[in-house]
């Protein structure tokens, strides 16, 4: 097996729940050694988000929740009590030997324990210290707590998601997954890699990265937010319709639905030919992209009347032959049965002590020279405490004393 891109990088993951652990998991996929610090006897709160829980070989639920499994693969779990001087010393010792720290404590919390950036840089000036919080290290909201759903609302995402006001079921809608956490975690990976590159090519000094879920979510709204900044008029909710080329929406067929986007005039002309209505491309209301945007409702109504006449499989075959972008609307069973997803290897299996083989979602990154071709399972709570502390000089007697005191 070839070396992975980040082999030799060591990460101390002090984060919990999703955004920070998601960043740490990406770094672990890329070959970094990621040491996850968890509360002795309790662990990351994400371990308790369930059901479902991973079943053992007999089918009985274990302590491993779906949430923990989703964002902690490939890490090492070490337990340590941050509130105790001995636990703080363990973390400082490990941090002195790390390249990266990831943390998502409330602003100022880690300073009480001497584990903030200003303190840890004294023991390791090369440290890249990534802080993820709801609102950032500065600003009037910096002390506020927050979760993904809060930032979906505050960022404007919910204002452009869902059906328009006045329609049945209309109103702001939350996106299903915790998208603010996911986007912030990916931003953290970008920031960490950039800071490591700067450190290694500009004198060896680390730095702190200050990331907020609020800002990450606003920035991720991209062209939607730019519509407002350019025009002063906020975009409105259109259900499944896109904000760009028309048509771009879900169409109901005789048995299920499809998503279709004809993003330019050429694609629209091919669409009209493929569905047997070439005259639509010559209709002045639909003959160019601006006209189609102005007459969106009329065009949608005509296409809906056509698509509902035949099943989705028929239309998808016709549209693929015409090179018109379209796809089915899958549930997750269909996603992981899709031949393309199977061929790309996105569903993986790892050895797990509770049930032998456990299915997880793999990395979407495909490298030509350093492929991600091996994964470790999400760790059991404290699974790597002994081996890690032994590396840093804590012998068996010392570890036993720390266990007796509840530090590890």
Automatic annotation (TrEMBL):
The answer to whether UniProt assigns keyword tRNA processing to this entry is no
Q: Name one Pfam family in it.
A: CoA_transf_3
Identify the InterPro entries for this entry: CoA-transferase_III_domain (IPR050483), CoA-Trfase_fam_III (IPR003673), CoA-Trfase_III_dom3_sf (IPR044855), CoA-Trfase_III_dom_1_sf (IPR023606)
Report which superkingdom the organism of origin falls in.
Bacteria
Keyword list (alphabetical) reads: Transferase
Q: Which PANTHER family has this protein been placed in? A: SUCCINATE--HYDROXYMETHYLGLUTARATE COA-TRANSFERASE (PTHR48207:SF3)
The protein here is known as CaiB/BaiF CoA-transferase family protein
Q: What species is given as this protein's source?
A: Xanthobacter aminoxidans
């Amino acid at each position: 097996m070839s070396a992975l891109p980040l082999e030799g990088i060591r990460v101390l993951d002090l984060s919990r729940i999703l955004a920070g652990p998601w960043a740490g998991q990406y770094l672990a996929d890329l070959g970094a050694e990621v040491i996850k610090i968890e509360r002795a006897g309790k662990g990351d709160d994400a371990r308790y988000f369930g059901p479902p829980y991973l079943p053992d070989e007999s089918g009985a639920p274990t302590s491993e929740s779906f949430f923990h499994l989703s964002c902690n693969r490939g890490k090492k779990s070490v337990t340590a009590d941050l509130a105790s001087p001995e636990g703080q010393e363990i973390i400082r010792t490990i941090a002195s030997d790390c390249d990266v720290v990831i943390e998502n404590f409330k602003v100022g919390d880690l300073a009480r324990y001497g584990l903030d950036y200003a303190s840890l840089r004294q023991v390791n000036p090369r440290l890249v210290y990534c802080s993820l919080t709801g609102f950032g290290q500065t600003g009037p909201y910096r002390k506020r707590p927050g979760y993904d759903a809060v930032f979906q609302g505050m960022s404007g995402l919910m204002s452009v998601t869902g059906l328009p006001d006045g329609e049945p079921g209309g109103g702001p809608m939350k996106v299903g997954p915790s998208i603010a956490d996911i986007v912030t975690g990916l931003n953290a990976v970008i920031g960490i890699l950039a800071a490591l590159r700067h450190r290694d090519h500009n004198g060896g000094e680390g730095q702190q990265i200050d990331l907020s879920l609020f800002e990450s979510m606003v920035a991720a709204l991209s062209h939607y937010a730019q519509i407002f900044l350019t025009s002063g008029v906020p975009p409105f909710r259109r259900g499944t319709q896109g904000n760009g080329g028309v048509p771009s929406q879900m169409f109901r067929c005789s048995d299920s639905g499809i998503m279709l986007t004809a993003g330019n005039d050429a694609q629209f002309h091919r669409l009209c030919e493929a569905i047997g209505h070439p005259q639509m491309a010559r209709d002045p209301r639909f003959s160019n992209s601006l006209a189609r945007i102005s007459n969106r409702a009329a065009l949608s109504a005509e296409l809906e009347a056509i698509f509902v006449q035949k099943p989705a499989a028929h239309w998808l075959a016709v549209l693929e032959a015409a090179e018109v972008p379209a796809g089915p609307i899958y549930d997750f069973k269909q996603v992981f049965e899709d031949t393309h997803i199977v061929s790309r290897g996105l569903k993986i299996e790892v050895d797990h002590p509770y049930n032998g083989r456990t299915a997880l979602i793999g990395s979407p990154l495909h490298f030509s020279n350093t492929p991600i071709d091996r994964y470790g399972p999400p760790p059991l709570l404290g699974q790597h405490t002994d081996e890690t502390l032994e590396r840093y000089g804590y012998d068996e007697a010392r570890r036993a004393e720390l266990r007796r005191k509840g530090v590890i």
